[in-house]
Design goal:
343 residues; mainly beta
Amino acid sequence: MRRSDSSTTQPFKTILTVAVVFSAVSLAAQLRVVDLGALPGANFSQAWAINDRGEVAGSSGAAEGVVQHAALWSDGEWIDLGTLPGHTFSHGIDINKRGDVVGISRSTIENTHAVLWEDGLAIDLGTLPGADYSTAEAINDRGQIAGTALSAAGDLHLIRWDDGQMIDLGPLPSLGTFIGGINDRGEIAGFSDQPTGARAFVWSDGSFAELPALNGSGFSIAYDINKRGWVVGYSATPDGGAHATLWRDGVPTDLGALAEGRLSVATGINDRGEVVGWGYNAEFEPRAFLWSDGQMVDLGTLPGGTTSFAMDINDRGVVAGFSNSEEVPTAVHATIWTDRRRE
């Protein structure tokens, strides 16, 4: 076997490092960051999901969150999706290619219902018999919806809605279970709080598969899944930290961080395998990032801002999230990041 000579390989390592840095700088120079504003009279908005038409689902309202409604950004303006009758709060969580939005509406935490907004109409997806709590947290392009619901006995169940029909997929490991995404194969990603820490999972064909942490035994959290079944989130690292994580065929990959020793969290993945999320920079400021081709790039903020979060990315590479700015320093506005080269 031929041994590598450090004097020979070092120039190549230097060239590779310079190439990666140049690529990151090039992307940053081509980014267009757009403030989507908020509903009329509101000073707060968040973008949680984006489809390939560029429509954004999220919420908008008062900065303190007392009055918040699910909202859809389409054709350059926000549409207030409202609440179910008698409710005061709603939140849009996901959107599919048809522009259908799913989320929650409630009057109190105990009285929370899963909602589908279709053509602007709020549809109550119902609850399990004898209970009054359900959530709709993800929707795929086939119109299947994934969420949770309490049973009359008080345990939390995994729920899927097909053509409006509620299908009980069985009890979940804990009340602290959250759904991250559902792909067009009907595979559902999420995580459940456990006595030893949260555990990411994928539900497929009636069974759960746990997703291991980067360190093999620590916590893991899943936030999204694409059509290939690739899952993203974050998990415990061998050095005691936590990094954005990509699971392919159940095997975790460390996506790194914006700065050494800092937390990073992956929140969205498109069908091209591009990943977005947020992480702390060297100054401990949370910043939106894009991970692509093995590198993580800080997407920056709205002008004058210090904080940004990326939540989703569509197949055109448009990123949706939220950021503060010089004009809105104490709140955030829904934000999209686009690469001018792909517009």
